[in-house]
Amino acid sequence: MKKIVIALIAVCLSGAVIGQSKDLNSAAYAFNGAQQMLPAAQKSGDFSKVKGKILSAKNYIDAALKKQNETKALKAKDIPKLWRYRCEIYLTYIMMAATDEEVKAEVEKNEDAMEEAIFGSARKCKETDAKKTHWTPLSQKMNLTRWGLASTGVQLFNEKKYEEAYEAFVGASEIADIIEMADSLSFYNAGLASEKLDKMDEAEKYYKKCVDLGYQGALTYVLLAQVQNRQGKSEEANKTLDEALQKYPGNMDLIKEQLNGYLLAEEYDKAEESMAKVIAKEPNNKVLHFSIGTIYDNLKKYAEAEKAYNAALEIDPDYFDALYSKGVSYFNQAVELYDKVQTLTDVVEQDSELKKAEDLMNKAMPVLEKAHGINAEDRNTMTALKQIYGRLGMDEKWLEMKKKLQG
User: Fold this and answer.
1) N or C end: fewer C-beta atoms under 10 angstroms in the chain?
2) Residues 175 and 35 reside in one and the same domain
3) Which residue, among 203, 237, 236, has the nearest Cα to 222 in the 3D structure?
């Protein structure tokens, strides 16, 4: 996977530093000279005149860190300087990779080390600089880096380069965490890019950040619940939506998402309650009436199911899904009665149940025939009609439907 540091290649920065101690002073001297020349190099894309100074600064700062690790010779006041310089120098070095193939090859070869040099150094500068002498200007530069990464990420996302966009947004988000900035937009975009890459755990993490910040209100809760459901975390998704509905009662997007979760979990009693709220808000939505009809069917509340299908068909008499489901509901009820008859010993009771089953088959037939007329290619409809014709002794129609299924 590409690292965050690759996204930094396109982000250009500028600034100046001051340094003390032999190696730090040498690094600062080379870096200051480079910084003065950077604007012209950035404008032209030619870093040849500044490359030597940046490489010199990088070598000096590496030497300073190596000596500090070996001898711990730096004074406490100089340690934040070391981390500040290291972060800034490596940021500038990576910037050159945008046009210098040699530098780019090294950056790509050592992505983890480059990332540590920037983000690790920034964190250590923050941790060790009690007076904020060096952390304040470095945090300002890091904020510019964050802005550049976020802007680059948007461009890459719009170009459907989701992996690169993801790295840019993650980089911007990481910087936001370091400088303690609530960059809700970068968190949100990181979540969107994560979804595009099927990184559901990452998407969940970033959407949770947005939820904590109140960004995008109910919408972010919906996105969070969706990625939780996609990970099989239905219980967590329900808690997310319950929390959201406490904040945004009556929000239709939240209620619909809650309904979808109940249906996925086959919690039809809860789905029924949720759907009733949705329909109360959107009484002319045929899909909602149809959907609650299927819920009632699963609950074996057949009278309520029939009423719901009829409501959908009042809105659209040629609504295939409602016609098919209404017909199949009658058909399935008839089959249940035929199965029940097999367990009965009383002849009168048998005849009574068979009559009820035949009536249901007769109710199912015209509904399914209308559905067949709307969608003549649907095999489920044809199969149900074939069985009905067989049960009712309608041989010619049975044979006709058999030929259609075979053809």
Assistant:
1) C
2) yes
3) 237
Residue 60 lies in a domain: yes
Average pLDDT over residues 206-214: 96
Q: pTM above 0.70?
A: no
- Summarised one tens digit per residue, pLDDT across range 343-392 is 988 889 999 999 999 999 999 999 999 999 999 999 999 999 999 999 99
Domain residues for the domain of 141 are 1-181
Q: Give the CATH number, domain containing residue 385.
A: 1.25.40
Q: In this structure, is residue 353 part of a structural domain?
A: yes
- Please check whether residue 324 lies inside any domain of the structure: yes
Rounded alpha-carbon distances, angstroms, from residue 225 to 133, 215, 235, 243, 271: 43, 15, 10, 11, 16
User: Which of 181, 207, 236 is the last residue in one of the domains?
Assistant: 181
- pLDDT at position 273: 82
Number of domains in the chain: 2
Over residues 307-316, the mean pLDDT reads 96
- pLDDT tens track for 255-303: 878 877 887 778 888 888 877 877 888 899 898 899 889 888 888 889 9
